[in-house]
Design brief:
Elements (H helix, E strand, L loop, with lengths): L1 H27 L4 H10 L5 E2 H8 L3 H13 L3 E5 L7 E5 L1 H28 L4 H20 L8
Antiparallel strand pairs: 1-3, 2-3
């Protein structure tokens, strides 16, 4: 059990350091980390709703709402009504936003590609599957023991 605890702790520390790396570099690139992550999320060429981004990327709604307003004011994105949804909007990069995302993310993508090439020389790509499975099992454990996670357990 101590070995499992150490492994989980190492995983969480590593993930925290990974986030810290992106946060530090976002500042060096002249961006807030939340703005970097929003551009990253939107840079796949697909429209996304605020809810989708929050669910997929784990953003707090207030954080994503603030950065969306900032980016909309800067002309980087536009919000479009989603047919059949009363309040939910699609977030789409404008041409200016696409250019900004490309400028902001070019260095990030290059660094990621090089780092991934080095990692894959040693570890198979399936290591992602192991992390996804751990997360899925963890969610199932929390949901099974504590319900939907909406109520307080303390």
């Amino acid at each position: 059990m101590d070995n499992i605890r150490k492994t989980i702790r190492q995983l969480l520390i590593t993930m925290s350091k990974l986030d810290k790396t992106y946060t530090a570099w976002s500042g060096k690139l002249g961006s807030q980390s939340s703005e970097l992550w929003l551009m990253y999320a939107l840079d796949d060429g697909q429209p996304h709703s605020q809810k989708q981004i929050c669910d997929e990327w784990g953003f707090p709604k207030t954080t994503i709402n603030s950065i969306i307003k900032k980016c909309e004011t800067a002309g980087y994105l536009t919000l479009l009504a989603i047919p059949g949804k009363r309040r939910e909007m699609q977030i789409c990069l404008t041409e200016k936003g696409k250019a900004y995302a490309k400028q902001l993310l070019n260095f990030v993508y290059q660094a990621e590609n090089k780092a991934m090439e080095e990692t894959l020389k040693i570890y198979p790509a399936e290591f992602f599957d192991a992390i996804k499975l751990f997360n899925k099992c963890l969610e199932a454990e929390f949901d099974g023991k504590f319900g939907t996670g909406e109520e307080s357990i303390i």
